[in-house]
Every structure is written in structure tokens, then in C-alpha cells.
Amino acid sequence: MALIGGAAPFLYARDNSTEDARRENAARLMNDLMTGKGPIGGPFMLTDQYGQRRSLDDFRGKLVLLYFGYTFCPDVCPTDLLAMGQLVKTLGVDGDKMQLIFVTLDPERDTQELLRDYVAAFHPRFVALRGSEDEVRRVATSYKIYFEKVRPPGSSIYLIDHMAFIFLLDRSGKYVAFFPPGTSAERMAVMVREFLAQPG
């Protein structure tokens, strides 16, 4: 489940006072992202699907597509991750100049082994990252990503409401653009090729 545009109506009934606060927070983060208010992104270090600590600096020299989601996501995450993998294929040899990164918003369930199998289904170039809940929240917040656990009434399984964007980072790891949910590989390729054509 995802918040398209950052403040879509929630599907499950909740306490109105806390729901209003959540909506306001999501809307504020979305506005910051759209207007470029304040810094977006920055250095981080998390653990990959092989148990290695990885920092954003590890990917210097490549354009990075960065995505926040979770493996139990029933809809938007698989669609966007598939498009990211297709983008690399669409770029042909230039695909080697790209790095795909998936950061889980659900470290409680998304184990290292689960992440390894999950991202491999979309493209072998994916690096999947996880950390403690506090670590993940710090990284997500730096990219203006809003997310929270929600539990449908009567269910023992929770979902995660989250903003779903694909972030484009330049060769130095600096944020340069984002693609909204559902952006096709072909549309992303237009902008990505422009950045690939720029001197390294």
C-alpha cells in the first residue's frame, strides 16, 4: 500500500486526531520534496542483502536510482522495481553506469535472506539495504519519505502506508530528481540519458 502523492486517503479507519496529524506530516514532506525546500538526501550507511555495511559513497561514479518500499507491498513497489530493472535493460551498455538501490521500510519482516531473493527477481544489479527501525527512519526522512504501519481491522498482518518515489542521484550521490509512482522505464530513460551524457 502506498500514498500516491503523499497524502492519499487512508483505506482503514483510525483515530481522527492522529490521522489528521499524519496527513499534515505527509503533506508537509511532500511539499518539501516538490519545492526543493531544505536538503534532500545525504550520506547514509545500512546493511545489504549479503550482510555487508554499505554507504552511499560506495556507489560514487554511477547514477543511482533509489527506492523505499517493502517486500510485502501488494501493488506499487513491485511495479516500480520492475520499471527500474527494465530501465537498466533499456539503456543497454549504459546500464552498467547505473546502480539500483532498494531500502526496506519494514526491517522487522524484511530479513537479509528475504531481501536477497526479492530484489534478484527484478534485476541482478539491485542492492537491497536494511537497518534498525531508527536507522531506516533517519534515511527515509532525509529523502522526505513518509511511512507508517497500518493494521486492517481484524487482521494480524500489518501493511505500510508509504510515499512511493524513485529518486535519481548523480554520480556524487547528490539528489537531482524524482520519478512519481508508475513512471515507465521509457520515460525514466529520457532523463537518465541526459545525465549519463554529462561529463563524469
Question: What can you tell me about this protein's structure?
Answer:
By secondary structure, this protein is of the alpha+beta class. It has a single domain, classed as Glutaredoxin (3-Layer(aba) Sandwich). Helices cover 33% and strands 22% of the residues. It contains 5 helices and 9 strands, in the order αβββαβαβαββββα. It has helices at residues 16-35, 76-90, 112-120, 133-142, 185-196; strands spanning 45-48, 53-55, 63-69, 98-104, 126-130, 147-150, 159-162, 166-169, 175-179. The strands form 2 sheets. Strands 2-1-5-4-3-8-9 form a 7-stranded mixed β-sheet, with helices on both faces. Helix 2 crosses helix 5. It is globular and about 55 Å long. The N and C termini lie far apart (37 Å). Residues 3-15 have low confidence and may be disordered.
Q: What's this, in brief?
A:
The protein has 200 residues and is α+β, with helices and mostly antiparallel strands. It has five helices and nine strands; from the N terminus they run H-E-E-E-H-E-H-E-H-E-E-E-E-H.
List the helices and strands and how they pair.
Elements: H1 16-35, E1 45-48, E2 53-55, E3 63-69, H2 76-90, E4 98-104, H3 112-120, E5 126-130, H4 133-142, E6 147-150, E7 159-162, E8 166-169, E9 175-179, H5 185-196
Parallel strand pairs: 3-4, 4-5
Antiparallel strand pairs: 1-2, 1-5, 3-8, 6-7, 8-9
Helix pairs in contact: 2-5
Total DSSP E strands: 9
Structural class: alpha+beta
**Major sheet details:** 7 strands, mixed
> Whole-number average pLDDT?
87
Summed up, the helix count is: 5
Strand content: 15-25%
Low-confidence stretches: 3-15
SSE ordering: HEEEHEHEHEEEEH
**Which fold name corresponds to the CATH topology?**
Glutaredoxin
| CATH homologous superfamily identity | Glutaredoxin
Calculate the terminal CA-CA distance, rounded to whole Å: 37 Å
Give the CATH class: Alpha Beta
